[in-house]
Amino acid sequence: MVNATRGLLISCDIPMAQFIISMNNSKPSNQKFIIHVLDDTHLFVQPHATEMIRIAIAEFREANTYEKPA
Amino acid sequence: MAPIASKLYTDDVSLVVLLLDTNPYFWTSSSSSSLSFSHFISHVLSFVNSILLLNQLNQVVIIATGHNTCGYIYDSSLSSVSSSISANESSGDAKMPAFCSEVLKSLEDFVKNDESLSSVDAGNGVGSSLLSGSLSMALCYVQRVFRTGPLHPQPRILCLHGSPDGPEQYVAVMNSIFSAQRSMVPVDSCVIGAQHSAFLQQASYITGGVYLKPQYLDGLFQYLSTVFATDLHSRKFIQLPKPVGVDFRASCFCHKNTIDMGYICSVCLSIFCMPHKKCSTCGSEYGQAQSDASTLSGQKRKEPS
Amino acid sequence: MPQVKIIAKNFIDMVASLPAVKLDMLYANPFICEAILRSLPPLAKKYVLQMMYIDAPIPAKSLEEWVLPDGLSKHRVAIDRLIQLRVLSETVDRKKETSYEMNKKFQINLQKQLIHGGILPREPMASSSVILPSSEELEIYALEQWEHFLLHLISSNQSEKLTNFSSSMMKVFQRGLLSQRDKEASRLTEYGFQFLLMETNAQLWYIIREYIANAEERGVDPANIISFLLELSFHETGQAYNINTLNEVQLNTIKDLSDLGLVKLQQGRKESWFLPTKLATTLSVSLSDTATRKQGYVVVETNFKMYAYSTSKLHCEIMRLFARIEYELPNLIVGAINKESLYNAFDNGITSDQIVSFLQQNAHPRVAEKVPTVPENVTDQIRLWESDLNRVEMAPAQFYDEFPSKDLFEAVCDFAREYGALLWDDSKKMQLVVKGELHNEMREFLRRQKQ
Fold this sequence. Notes:
The complex is a heterotrimer. By secondary structure, chain A is of the alpha+beta class. Helices cover 39% and strands 27% of the residues of chain A. In chain C, the strands form five sheets. Chain C has a four-stranded antiparallel sheet, covered by helices on one side. A three-stranded antiparallel sheet of chain C has the order 1-3-2. β1 of chain A pairs antiparallel with β13 of chain C.
């Protein structure tokens, strides 16, 4: 019997995928959000994780930039 | 060298330089019996108006090819309708009555001038018109347009010709054809005379233009608007008359006769019908015997030391 | 720039969507026929020219023979446009063959234009009775008016002059561009930002389109306004035309047009007249793909610095959208493009393409002839910064696995593919991911397959 799961498909590049996986691993087990790791560039996660992932990526991006003090 | 077509300018803005054949010998001869000059002019003026109608920025320049001289008849970017404000860009669509009479007046002046310049002994048969002169004038105008900056219309030359080819103009015409090819200006030709014109066939073939000899001269306007009003951008998409067979015969440089077989200078490739001792174009001497050649080359070899 | 085409095409679409009766009435004016002809794609223009003196209907097959195989798609586009504008009418006879015939009024008017040229319904006034401003003064006036209008549009407190437009008209214009939130100053919407970066003609067309669309509500027939506008574009720039040659509708419109900078109204002792500016006469040019030949003013250097030789406040505001303004000098605005300012712009909905094409089109003549106009490292970096924001794509989806057989898996894959909803599949593991919206249909499909 075919099994259907509702969720969110994430397609990105390989480093981003690894980042999300590591973020998932660092979370306590009741807050893990990855349902399946499909392949190198695709992940299937729980639907509520959208905002969390977006914020985490933004923080990661800001952490890598230097702003000249105005 | 080649003009950079700006992406910001619309695709179909064109500059058409019209070369009108006003050779009196042709127009009064029997070859032009089906079309009188006044009818011809009315077809041409309607065609010019239709080009100016298609796009606000289109430009048309008319150059008349006479028997002894050539001259500018009309330039649509210079015409101003009202006298108070001089040459405005947007007055390209001149009111018809003013533009017609302007053209007709200039043509009249030109023909009178042409006649006055003709020498006494020009009565042998149907003379040819100065195609090379008007082609050169057209190309000079196009070069000036290229230098006005990055935004300019795409130029092309349309030659409405009827007189027979004058072999004495072969060299000059070929030179202008090659410079047109270099600047990527197509030369279209519409032949209204009785016979095909080898010069124009070659011109259209080399520069990538269209050559047409209409069958029914009464419908000249329809031929012009169907084939020759196509702008350069749309030519990739529309079926146009293909060249049937181009007459590539050259004329010799010494007597200006059309020849099939001849002698060629090995230095500058000029064509002669009879063997010469010395090339008139580049001045190189040939026809020397073997013994002379070896002493000459011997002398030459001594120089570098 | 594709946006002019989109906006202007929308104007022509608006004309095309007028009811057939109104459109035919519009074609009674020869200048409108000319303006419509000029707005067609080049292939369509050729067809009209060729068919101008042919009275009988032409079979569609003959028309197709005119085109090379490469051009068939353009041919279809041209024919569709012509039918949409009712220039060509299509008839299908009993043998199921289509043929096209040209609109008679359109044809006759164009023939007249061809042979007699266009005669405007009004003549310019003699120069003895009017004092004409020079063409530079007129152009400066037009630009000033337009910029005041734009500034007033964006933020009512920034411009000094008040416009004649009633506040309700301004609200209509601002409808798509500004968003009003309670207790907050109005902010520019995403479309508002894009609007600012468009070039003048596109902006003009947008405003005019809104104006005309709104005309019906005010009880004015839009066809009249359209015909007046198109007629205006055939007048001569800088020539005075007497006001008493306008009818009532046109009189009302002309006051609004002078606010936009399209015409200048002047009054003498006995008469008053209007002068069309360059903005008006080049209006119809941009109906097709052209851009204005305005002089650019921006120089972008490889060190990401931007120099704008302009004094206009509007230009400063526009540049503030995506660059950090460092100095404002009497004739120069100096700014720098950096990541922060660009992220700001991207947050507001501007795309990197718009920024790059704005820079390219407004390039100062000194750099305009260089290839490329804007240094490649700058354009590449702008695009990279944009793509950095979009590294991850998320889509609500359904995940299906544990298929009993490969056939069922293939069938489900094909089913999803037909709807364009297949996002990911793996045939080895027999798993697939489908767009979330398709879930109900998928359930139905699976139920049917089981039987």
